Amino acid sequence: MIAAPTRLGPDRPLRVHVVGSSAAVLVEPQHGPRDGGTYGEQLAGVLGGRGVPTTVSHAGRWFGRVCDLLPHYERDVRDRFPDVLVVNFGMAECQSNALPYSVVRHLTTWDRSSRPAALLYREKVAPRLWRPLRDYQRAAAARDTRTHRLSPARFVADTTRLVELVRKDCGSLVLLLDVDPPGDRVEHWLPGTRARAAAYTELLAGVADRYDDTVRLVRAGAALTDPAVELPDGLHRSPAGHARTAALLAEEVLSWLAR
User: Fold this and answer.
1) What DSSP string runs through 191-214?
2) 3-state class of 225 per DSSP?
3) Residue 97 CB neighbour total at 10 angstroms
4) Domain residue ranges in the chain
């Protein structure tokens, strides 16, 4: 059993670190406004209001996968030395890879660069390439039952590796968030993603079951009561959605600290 810190206060706040895909760091609609902030940012206020001074840091990445985090584990996880690690992966990993991950990431990136040639490519060429490829991806995903952007076995292995490392190095409470049920828009363009997301959530449950209650699955996506409001683009939370998740995470942390 990993012990909770016992000397928390203004000079020793609880350290919470959030890693994951853009679901961990974006607020919708239109990537804002940031009223209330992400669930991590709101968690600091919720716990502070319950008498637990808390600082929160993030290492989220657009279209991020757990396999992309592990090579940077020392910088993005261990060096933060978190008391609590919140892990929010699975949505990118579970998707069909009929159109390869590298191609989709390249064509949908928000990185517009500042070079004239790159700007021209992003404004004039990439959208024309993306439209027919997006249509192909939709058709192919509807028939694809074999490929994933990260295979189930690799997803379990890499998530377990992350859990093992942070427990050994930092003694952290690890909270694994479930994979949010994707909205209608996501299901339209990537048919079958809802079933895939549910399957990857159960993989996360299997990882959590290997440990005592200092590794926990938090079914935050399943707890969203009004996805049209709380998950407006089908992938990212609104301030209200983040608030609901922050409340769930706070209860998990407080029950750990009570022990």
Assistant:
1) TTHHHHHHHHHHHHHHHHTTS-TT
2) coil
3) 20
4) 14-95+150-258, 97-147
CA separation for the pair 66, 47 (Å, rounded): 27
Confirm if 39 and 245 have CB atoms less than 8 A apart: yes
The DSSP bridge pattern shows strands 173-177 and 84-88 to be parallel
pLDDT one-digit tens code per residue, 60-119: 888 899 999 999 999 999 999 999 999 999 999 999 999 999 999 888 876 667 788 888
CA–CA separation, 227 and 221 (whole Å): 9
Superfamily (CATH H level) for 14-95+150-258:
SGNH hydrolase (3.40.50.1110)
Q: Say if pTM beats, i.e. exceeds, 0.85.
A: yes
Residue 47, token pair as written in the block: 């716990």
Q: DSSP 3-state assignment of 18?
A: strand
